[in-house]
Design brief:
The chain is an alpha+beta fold. Helix content is 21%, strand content 47%. It is built from four helices and eight strands; from the N terminus they run αααββββββββα. It has an eight-stranded antiparallel β-barrel. The longest helix has 12 residues, at 167-178.
Length: 180
């Protein structure tokens, strides 16, 4: 079994394993990601399965979906914490604009944050406030395959995310973001 396959298996079966970091570092050393040619491969829904951070909302939880929804062709994204099993844009969200910085670095400017509730009739309940103070960051994409993404944030945190094959949720995201 190759390194990526082993890492995928451990992320699903033992998301707190001490083996994860060393496997991620091995994959990063073999990466040939280039933002100019690979940017559209980032499009989709990514679930955070591991991070080097001790911050609770940056850690894996079996009860919460910690999602990053990326649409680079439209230069937008959303971090969404939602109850696991709910197939909708419901929970706590942060909306962001994306922009390329260099061959591996994606700039992130956070624009809105707050609560996103369910759809009642024709109205989507939401309390997303504009972020008044400039909140920017960046992510270096250090490894990317169809199933797995490894990146490093501007504060040094390593993130490992799995791609979710959920076209219905992505369509809901597009509708949501277009109606902000």
């Amino acid at each position: 079994m190759d390194t990526e396959s082993k890492l995928l298996k451990i992320l699903i079966e033992k998301p707190n394993s001490k083996e994860i970091l060393s496997m991620a570092l091995k994959l990063e050393s073999k990466s040939n990601f280039n933002l100019k040619s690979d940017i559209e491969k980032l499009k989709g829904i990514w679930e955070l399965r591991w991070s080097s951070s001790n911050v609770p909302f940056l850690s894996y939880s079996p009860l919460i979906d910690n999602l990053q929804i990326l649409n680079p062709s439209q230069s937008n994204a959303m971090n969404l914490l939602k109850p696991r099993g709910v197939n909708g844009i419901i929970g706590t969200g942060i909306v962001a604009e994306l922009y390329p910085i260099n061959d591996i670095r994606v700039g992130v400017k956070f624009t809105r944050a707050g609560f996103i509730g369910p759809q009642i009739g024709f109205t989507k309940l939401k309390a997303l406030a504009p972020i008044k103070k400039d909140q920017k960051g960046w992510l270096d994409i250090t490894y990317l395959s169809y199933k797995l993404r490894i990146c490093r944030g501007d504060k040094g945190t390593i993130f490992i995310l799995l791609r979710r094959k959920d076209l219905k949720l992505f369509t809901k995201y597009e509708h949501f973001i277009n109606n902000l």
